[in-house]
Protein: Structure-specific endonuclease subunit SLX1
Organism: Vigna unguiculata
Amino acid sequence: MRSISHNWSSSFGLGSGASITTLLKACKSSEQLKQVHASIIYRGLEQDHFLISLFIPLSHTLSTLYYTSSVFLRVLTPSTFLWNTLIKSHCHNSCFSQTLSSFTRMKAHGALPDTFTYPSVIKACSTTCKPREGKSLHGSAFRCGVHRDLYVATSLVDMYGKCGLIADARRVFDGMSKRSVVSWTAMLVGYVAVGDVVEAEKLFGEMPQRNVASWNAMLQGFIKAGDLSGARDVFDAMPEKNVVSFTTMIDGYAKVGDMVAARFLFDRATGKDVVAWSALISGYVQNGQPNQALKVFFEMESMNVKPDEFILVSLMSASAQLGHLELAQWVDSYVSKSCIDVQQDHVIAALLDMNAKCGNMDRASKLFEERPKRDLVLYCSMIQGLSIHGRGEQAVNLFNRMLMEGLYPDEVAFTVILTACSHAGLVDEGWNYFQSMKQKYYISPSPDHYACMVDLLSRSGHIRDAYELIKLMPEPHAGAWGALLGACKLYGDSKLGEIVANRLLQIDHLNAANYVLLSDIYATSERWIDVSLVRSKMRERRVRKIPGCSKI
């Protein structure tokens, strides 16, 4: 390494009178940067503000935050220009807490912020959603007399809008004597962020000039509001489209389950980036098409596009849906060898969920126990995995352990544990959890919770108790009535079965399974006339039984 560095420095004549500026532009590594820094110190140029202003952004890219800060701290009296360079560099590299702390230090050192200072600091507040600090910066800009500057005011509109303070954003916007297309777009994005598509559309119509970002913002507004028709009208009217435009529409079609249209648009898009691939893959996963998601993933791989963490999470979700153990092991290995940070909460949660659902409980348990801090999501994934693979008592023990650790269960957690109790036939435990929802955790049971309890009682032969419980449900639930009807058939209660079936046919009259169950109940009791009547009713309503099939 020493000889390589020597050759690089010699080629630029580091010991001669070579320009430091030229050397900085030629830097490609941390080692080379340190050689140039040594030359700056040797020549006594550490207080040259211009050179240091070139050095700081490069140091941020090639070296560490600590090294960059140490170089800046050597400057005795940094100018506003140099402070701005440091603040902008922090912001550009997403070091938002350092952006704000540098601004505080700047003021403490007596340097006066200007119109170039505030946009970066305000951006740090908007990105991290810190409206309190943003308002403080607004006041600071007002005292410095720069709050009406085009760039400062536009940054304030953007900050207030993204933090949900739309009235404040509008107040700043209305007070601007001059507005650019970026100012208009920032206000538009604010309305979209708070879900006010009516005001967004009104503002969009008033815009004197639009760019592709403006069109994309309006497109996103309609998608967010669930108005796919309005989004399509905007998309078709766009004079210019980029990959963001296509990705937004792909996401919109995926949300309504139209993956054919999503794929069609994806194929039309030019310059597809990793976000576009992610939108299509996650769309297939969300719509229960894991095989298509895997197919697109391998298609992406063949085009040498490196997946990001979101694509890998979707890949794990697709594998979890398929429940294929060998595939899960391959995906686990692939993720472990990738360059993403596997220790991120959402990545670990997806990895654990995939292994649990695919039957690799040893790997799931290892991931779970190695986690220094386990949240509700991890617990639920683990409990669900145990439940799926017939370990109901272990699932209950783990849920109790979760409570002992001080975690408060939510609606999803109760659905998971009640399902586990249902699969394992743990009536007492399930009933206790169901009762504790209201009495201890102040959670009103949803139709899904009632359905779990009805299923538990039905499976365990307590069909009369299940019937009394189902009558207390706030709204009818076809799944719950269907579970009870199945239990009536299993335990030969034709009288209750008839009552349940009639209620179920009012809720879900097109489901052939309900008619078949009722017909079987009548057949068991040798009520052949009733069997014939049920089948006649099926023909009248044109309800057909779907033939069963198996897949190995």
User: Anything to note?
Assistant: Residues 1-76 form one domain.
